[in-house]
Design brief:
Layout (H helix, E strand, L loop, with lengths): L2 H7 L5 E6 L5 H11 L4 E5 L11 E5 L13 H15 L6 E3 L7 H4 L4 H18 L4 E3 L10 H7 L1 H4 L5 E5 L4 H10 L5 E6 L8 H11 L5 E10 L14 H8 L2
Parallel strand pairs: 1-2, 1-8, 2-3, 3-4, 4-5, 6-7, 7-8
Helix pairs in contact: 3-5, 9-10
């Protein structure tokens, strides 16, 4: 396939980057966006946000804090704390909100009881909708590395029914998972807030990401490659900023 045809077939309107928590190089990111000719690029932002807006950018925000010890942490307090944080950073920057991350990991939730986690996430989703009227709420994406991942999505139904979008983490080779989750929630779009693999040093990884984005089924609303930037020594193999993969993407223009 011609390189330019690969880019055109990739559906850039559904493709984007998980920005991470390192120091953002916004000049480089803006250049990458311009070079791809992206329209409506997706950005998943955490504790670092753009100092200036990038045109045609859709931002999905996941607060810095993850779920910690849900049995001791009031989801209403969690929601309203983040309302203050969110408004301080400018609610106009954001289109969607993800309120937690991988709660099926015991180190995140403080428990491995799916009923406790699902109830916490249900109450938190209701609180988030009340705190941020008019914003789209994503259910927390679960870790696909945990046994019983698909069953856990079924047990999360009370929480997911309170959300607009089903959150997913998908690492390129998990298509069967996407189909199974879509079958559970056919009336909800799926959003992949983390995708990819730890091979950003390989120029061919750019083509792998493009092919992955191009092949997403229509019920996937978008997918953000993990991860644009992190502090050095953390997820080094995944870091896309200044990577061979991104340089190859730039060369596709």
């Amino acid at each position: 396939m011609q390189k330019d045809m690969r880019v055109k077939s990739a559906g850039w309107g559904r493709a984007g980057f998980h920005l991470g928590w390192g120091q953002m190089d916004w000049i480089e990111l803006a250049a990458a966006i311009r070079a791809t000719g992206a329209r409506n690029l997706l950005i998943l932002a955490g504790n670092d946000l753009p100092a200036r807006s990038i045109p045609n950018m859709r931002i999905v925000y996941r607060p810095r804090a993850h779920v910690k010890a849900v049995t001791q942490f009031d989801p209403w307090e969690y929601a309203y704390y983040h309302r203050w944080e969110w408004e301080q950073k400018g609610a106009g920057h954001f289109d969607d909100l993800i309120y937690a991350n991988e709660p099926n990991l015991p180190e995140e939730a403080g428990t491995d009881d799916p009923q406790i986690i699902a109830e916490w996430c249900r109450v938190a989703a209701i609180a988030m909708r009340a705190a941020f009227p008019g914003k789209r709420i994503h259910s927390p994406a679960l870790s696909p590395a945990v046994p019983g991942y698909i069953e856990f999505y079924s047990q999360m139904a009370p929480a997911i029914r309170e959300c607009n979008v089903v959150g997913i983490h998908d690492y390129i080779d998990c298509r069967a998972n996407l189909e199974a989750i879509h079958h559970m929630y056919p009336d909800r779009p799926l959003f992949i807030s983390e995708c990819g693999r730890p091979d950003a040093g390989n120029p061919n990884y750019a083509y792998e990401l493009i092919d992955y984005w191009a092949d997403l089924p229509p019920y996937i609303e978008g997918a953000c490659a993990f991860i644009w930037n992190t502090p050095h020594g953390s997820f080094d193999g995944w870091r896309l900023q200044n990577s061979n993969a991104v340089r190859e993407m730039l060369a596709l223009d």
